[in-house]
Amino acid sequence: MRMAQSKSGRHCLIKINQVSDWNALWRSHAASLLAALAQRLRNLDLAEEALQHAFEKAARHWPATGWPGDAAGWLYRTAWNFALDQRKHAAHVAAHAALAAVDVDPAPSVQERLATFFLCAHPALSVDTQAMLMLRFAAGLSMADIARWFYSDEQTVSKRLQRAKHKIEATCIEFQLPEVDTWAERLPPVLSAIEVLYDRSYADVAGSEAIAAYGRDAEQLALTMAELLPDQPSALGLASLIVFAESRRSARLDSQGSLVPLDRQDPQSWDGVRIHVAAALLARGAATQANDPFVVRAAISAAHAERRISGRTPWRKIAALYELLFATTAHAPARWHQLLALAHAGQAVEALEKWNALRDTASDAAYHLIAADIHHSNGHTAERRAHLSAALRYPLGSAERQWVAGQLARA
């Protein structure tokens, strides 16, 4: 459901038949509302149930009454009142009295959002369970999205989340930001979840405004994390990486709605302010630990940003950075991108020889697109077409799919 705003800023009503995408409403507000409810109710089950009730009530009443301009506020108040009723009916008089005194401002602070991330990253939970909880309760992703990320089904994800919620309740894990000296052990899964949230937006550049909002949401969380942990290279590196990526958002789509690859974008259309902020974050992270994986990846983005000044991409430098990244993480995509950079740097034959020696069994759209590019650098049309066709068999955003299809048609 697309949110409408009046130019005067006052609340307005829009007939429900003008609004068709309820999923957009969920994507725009579920993460922040769920985080606020979880922190203030101290109960994940009740927070989830209350928010679901609010959406169901909206579906019943808004077709007749119209959609309130302050949709998020309406949903929060409805969910909050439902939660209070549930507590009262359960005879939790003391809890009800405490809750009634809490400010019902529907806008959670960033600290509340981060507190939810750290709650879900409690070391008593398995790594996969931590990630699932964060994506659901801190990032607001749907069960279907989470199942897709974990190559699972919604029923399995739902059962694992339910067990995790019971464990949190049974072990009395606190719903607040833990002491800073305990953050280190929880930080990796928190940063990974923020990155997944950003990837949800980055992977679909032509998606709805709600999809783009995932990117802004992740950017704000990453910047806040960097502010709270000014000496933590991973936090600084992730924030730099995301801000660099956001600086190029407007250049990633052409007038026909097709993806524009990074090396073909107009660098003058990139956001110079964001590039400056990202570079400063990178400098601080590199000064602490230059080979941190997030710092190295941000340095790769910074190298691409050099084209805005010099007019050329330093491919050899980028290849060396990917080599460092692979040495640090042994992550296959780092090796793929390193060979692609070599091909762009004029070493196409060497890149292809090393690519053929990889014999990777894992495969996704990125793997096939990089293979297509390396074969293209070597003038291998048939092989390029085969890899472009293979890439189209994987999930892609509409702009990404349009670009791949266009490349295949012209190959």
Short note summarizing the structure:
The chain is mostly helical. It has helices spanning 22-41, 44-65, 71-89, 93-100, 110-120, 127-138, 143-149, 154-170, 183-202, 209-228, 233-247, 272-288, 293-305, 307-310, 315-329, 332-344, 348-358, 365-377, 381-391, 398-410; strands spanning 13-14, 67-68.
Average pLDDT for all residues? 83
Through-space gap between termini? 40 Å
**Side-by-side strand order of the widest sheet:** 1-2
The gyration radius over C-alpha positions equals 23 Å
Order of helices and strands: EHHEHHHHHHHHHHHHHHHHHH
Judged by helices, strands and strand pairing, the structural class is: mainly alpha
Helical coverage, percent range: 55-70%
Number of helices: 20
Strand fraction equals under 5%
By DSSP, the count of extended strands is 2
Low-confidence stretches: 1-20, 91-104
Describe the protein in words.
This protein is mainly alpha-helical and 411 residues long. Among the domains are: 13-100, no CATH class; 109-195, Arc Repressor Mutant, subunit A; 333-411. It is built from 20 helices and two strands. A two-stranded antiparallel sheet has the order 1-2. Helix 6 crosses helix 9 and helix 17 packs antiparallel against helix 18. The model is unreliable at 1-20 and 91-104 (pLDDT under 50).
